[in-house]
Amino acid sequence: MGYRLPILLAVVVGFSGLLLFRKSQLSSPLQQSPHDGTFRKIADNLSRQGYVWHVPIANRKVELYVFLLQFGTDYLLIDAGPPGEEYAEFFIKGLKKEIGSGHLRLVVLTHGHIDHVGALPALKQAYPEAHVAFHTEESPYLTGEALYKDVPSDNKEYNLITHDVSAALPESRVLHLKGSSGDVADAVSPTGRAPKWLPPRDALQFYHMPGHAPGQVVYLHTPSGSLVAGDTFTNTGQPPALGLPPPRVTPNVTRARLSAKALAALQFKTAFCTHDSATGVSRPELQKWTQSL
Ligand SMILES: [Zn+2]
């Protein structure tokens, strides 16, 4: 039965600017993908799977990660990667190998840009019971009520267009995160029904970090001190260098800068962004960088 919510996803015009990626990366070893689909452990009960995505439109490749948290036999995924059959096969195969007979209970999104939600349709098929949570400020862009191209922008380079890949999530599988911060254990269903599964209380906090997207959030896994930071910052190139996401895909650069500073003030050990040519960044390193912003 189900009320279908078409998911509108963001695509970039002139993807060359999409994600930060310096010219130096074009000649980096990333062109020969080092990733084999394995989820590699980066902290206790936290692993990540990397992929080198050939960005459509532009002849560019970008490295990106999705993250998996384990709570006993229950699993929680952070973000769902880019669209395309090739990625979906790679992603789901690696996920099934990692989860085995465990259960994928929840997918939490940092935001709705296409390289974070593209494989949601494949996930929906592979794991029909999993719910998907995101911030209420991002909700209109995920349900089709609003378009990323219409987000008020403080810079002239901003140029996101959208297209519909119809992830068609039933409303019964959606959960909302509300406010400036909170516990993912408090996520609520728009239907008013109690969610079937939520992570243990005090295990996963979210913080609203707008700028790059209106409802972008980051997730702090408190037991390991790991911050999964989406696109609040990037760490790309050879050698990797910290940076803000590019204006072309960031409507509010001023707020993005403030969010990066707010991020560095959180209590964490290591922050992992989506586009990371290293293995995370320590809090002192991130603080040093944000002081220069
Ligand atoms: Zn983004």
Q: What is this structure's SSE topology?
A:
Blueprint lengths: L3 E2 L2 E5 L10 H4 L13 E4 L2 E10 L4 E12 L2 E5 L6 H15 L3 E6 L5 H4 L2 H7 L4 E5 L3 H5 L16 E5 L4 E2 L3 E4 L3 E3 L20 E5 L8 E5 L4 E3 L5 E3 L4 E3 L9 H12 L5 E3 L8 E2 H9 L2
Parallel strand pairs: 6-7, 7-8, 8-11, 15-18
Antiparallel strand pairs: 1-10, 2-9, 3-4, 4-5, 5-6, 12-13, 13-14, 14-15, 16-17, 18-19
The structure holds zinc ion.
In brief, what are we looking at here?
The protein is built from seven helices and 19 strands. It has 293 residues and is α+β, with helices and mostly antiparallel strands. Helix 6 (253-264) runs antiparallel to helix 7.
Residues in helices, as a percent range: 10-25%
Instruction: Give the domain tally.
Output: 1
Taking all residues together, what is the mean pLDDT?
A: 88
Task: Please give the alpha-carbon distance between the first and last residues.
Answer: 50 Å
Q: Order of strands across the biggest sheet?
A: 3-4-5-6-7-8-11
Secondary structure: number of strands:
19
SS field, number of helical segments: 7
CATH architecture: 4-Layer Sandwich
Overall shape: globular
**CATH H-level name... which superfamily?**
Ribonuclease Z/Hydroxyacylglutathione hydrolase-like
Bound heterogens, unique: zinc ion
What does the radius of gyration come to? 17 Å
Q: Output the CATH class name.
A: Alpha Beta
Biggest β-sheet description: 7 strands, mixed
**In terms of per-residue confidence, which ranges show pLDDT below 50 for 5 or more consecutive residues?**
1-31
Order of helices and strands, N to C?
A: EEHEEEEHEHHEHEEEEEEEEEHEEH
Strand content: 25-35%
* Category by helix and strand content: alpha+beta
CATH topology: Metallo-beta-lactamase, Chain A
Pfam families: Lactamase_B
Domain Metallo-beta-lactamase: 63-275
InterPro entries: Metallo-B-lactamas, NDM-1-like, RibonucZ/Hydroxyglut_hydro
Protein name: G5317 protein
